[in-house]
Amino acid sequence: MPAIPPNVRGAIITGWGTALPPKVVTNHDLEQTIDTSHDWIVDRTGIHERRVGGSTVGLSVESGRMALEMSGVDPLAIDALVLATTTPDRTVPASSPAVQTELGLKCGAYDVNAACSGFVYALVQAHGMIAMGAKKVLVIGTDTLARITDWSDRNTAILFADGSAAVVLEAVEGPGQLLGWDLDADGTAEKFLYADVGGYIQMDGKEVFRRAVRIMVDSATKSMNHAGVTADDVSLVVPHQANIRIIQASMDRLGLPIERAVTVLHRTGNTSSASIPLALADALDNGRVAKGDLLLLVGFGAGMTAASAILRWGGTTADGADATVLA
Ligand code: COA
Fold first, then answer.
1. Which one of 44, 109, 201, 264 is least enclosed by Cβ atoms within 10 Å?
2. CB-ligand 1 contact for 151 (6 Å cutoff)
């Protein structure tokens, strides 16, 4: 993918929101039903507990509303809604039109399915729409993987969960936050992670692990090259929250200390399309992002897909909205 051309109208994130279902399922809860242990799960994945429940539409409305409120944007001013999800509530239609209606938006609304890379795919698309004239786009990442997880299968039940997070993206004059991006896919690896219609997630965990580290690092490197930056310039990595060992190995290969990665998986598990924006929101809420910081968003997922984006935090819209910093 070539680098972003000069003079393209950019965008900044002016609000964000999150939604997690109230029901907590701990590793100790799983010990009651499958042959596993809290210590094994923590040691092999880093996950302590996860949230389970809710619908894709319901969670999206919750996180989307929070992001709109934070940005102060009138719902009627949103030009497009992009919902990244691999678990829509129905096969037909997409979940996004129901979210659009419940949030009081009057705009195009569609789902993007790139599995756990979906939020970054959607974020890049939203930037494309803003370059083509849209002024405000709501981007949501939501998954309800509990519904397609076989809770008697210890291979997958320890990993997957439900959640949602959203951002409001607003146009700026001149370049915005996005400095470089990369979207990848390799259909030959589909067999390692999939769910048939009406079926449960099937996974070759070892193979997914092996490929995940490679494709995350490859994608991140391409984005950094397009942005003209190096790993040393990156203030914070916001990785897909699949497994702490995948994050650790990827950080090692990028030559970055683990302290520079945002992790929420200990309390969320793997929430697929919601995982990167949940981690981003956590970093923003906890004051880990300052104006001028360089963020690397990077993920991988079923497909297999990979995606990454380099964002320089900051910026101001023509009507005076800032990239919010809570610090
Ligand atoms: N609880 C307890 N023991 C388990 C277990 C579980 N849930 N699952 C496997 N084991 C056992 C195995 O039987 C094996 O025992 P043995 O050594 O006596 O044969 C041992 O633990 C190691 O199993 P293995 O499959 O090699 O574990 P692993 O280190 O590869 O970890 C995953 C398994 C699934 C955690 C890991 O492969 C992984 O995270 N892969 C990536 C998956 C992923 O991220 N998917 C989503 C992508 S978006």
1. 44
2. no
The answer to whether the peptide bond before residue 304 is cis (omega within 30 degrees of 0) is: yes
**Residue 282, CB-side half-sphere exposure with 13 Å CA sphere:** 22
Give the Cβ contact number of residue 39 at 10 Å. Answer: 10
Structure tokens at 198: 């009406």
Summarised one tens digit per residue, pLDDT across range 38-80 is 999 999 999 999 999 999 999 999 999 999 999 999 999 999 9
Closest-CA residue to 16 (of 60, 51, 54, 66): 66
Query: 1-327 falls under which CATH superfamily?
Result: Thiolase/Chalcone synthase (3.40.47.10)
The phi, psi pair for 245, rounded to 5°, reads -75, -30
**Rounded CA separation 155/219 (Å):** 27
Give exposure, 55-80, as e/b (b: 16+ Cβ within 10 Å). bbbbbbbbbbbbbbebbebebebbbb
Decide: 6 in ligand 1 pocket, CB within 6 A.
Answer: no
Burial bucket for residue 151 (CB in 10 Å: 0-12, 13-18, 19+): middle
Answer yes or no: is the C-beta of 40 below 6 A from any ligand 1 atom. yes
Amino acid at 271: T
Q: Are 82 and 96 in contact (CB under 8 A)?
A: yes
pLDDT tens digits, 133-191: 999 999 999 999 999 999 999 999 999 999 999 999 999 987 899 999 999 999 999 99
Q: pTM score > 0.85 for this model?
A: yes
Q: Is the peptide bond before 93 cis (omega within 30 degrees of 0)?
A: yes
User: Smallest Cα–Cα separation from 309: which of 238, 223, 230?
Assistant: 223
Nearest to 236 by CA among 204, 203, 281, 270: 281
Paired tokens of 218: 């490859």
- 244 is written with which tokens? 């702490």
Find tokens 């242990």 and name the residue.
37
Closest residue by CA, ligand 1 atom 48? 301
Q: What letter would DSSP give residue 169?
A: E
- Is there a contact between 124 and 183 (Cβ–Cβ < 8 Å)? yes
